[in-house]
């Protein structure tokens, strides 16, 4: 029972790291799946298989390597020299994403809670710092609380959708988007999210260590991600094409269900921003500590202050350059991770030391 409990914590952390604010707003689901009409559910199934397969292999490989951070994994996949450069790019992108997430938390406080933008930034930063002092155990705990609430919220939306007039629209919506674009979409989605999630999944795999627990957690987590994506897809499909006009599609749907559901939605948006922010900053500080030999608490403060400063000016222009680059890099990462996973299955890891194949 204790191992099952630990597997659930791994699963919830997997879900909480991948399914962030982009999912809660509905924007990611709409962009990667729903706009492809009746193909959407099949594309989600493809993404789910990738999350289960590669999520498990990433954590298992990290456990075998006793990887300290995602740079160890990138060196393993890309080689020592290129792996360092890949990790540098990931570090910059993660800093940018965290700055935007912190700014999003400030906007949420300002727009929905009638508190100042700066107050929202400072409250979120302080909560992050307190939680990160507890390390990986705190990340496991907070995801174990937040992810079930996310699952409950999406269940409510699905039940409402199934009782509405557009319940079957996800099976019949036509699309004029190229089939090539449609079938590339789940690979892009899985590649980007898994390569970003390795900031926390790699040290998590090394910390847990037990292959059975990690494999079970990856299955539960990957299927959970797929179920939540499908729930979002069903809900958005029932309101197509009108829902595409909203910047936050799920926000408009939540308002239809009454003020209580709307407030729960606002809370979940914040918690999803918060859990992803905490996980990414944890991975970043582990990475930075390998280069800068100072206490982890000081590194955490430095990263949070950087995000605070960047949040003052907006990070949109920089991310508009970094995201396309990182999307292409993520596809390369996905291919190399898949190759490494196939060697794991055959018991022949390409660059692991002798004896590691026994653990696989």
From TrEMBL:
UniProt keyword terms in alphabetical order: Membrane, Transmembrane, Transmembrane helix
Spans traversing the lipid bilayer: 36-56, 82-109, 115-132, 139-160, 180-206, 218-240, 260-284, 296-315, 321-338
Protein name (database record): Membrane protein YkvI
Originating organism: Cohnella nanjingensis
Phylogenetic classification of the source organism: Bacteria, Bacillati, Bacillota, Bacilli, Bacillales
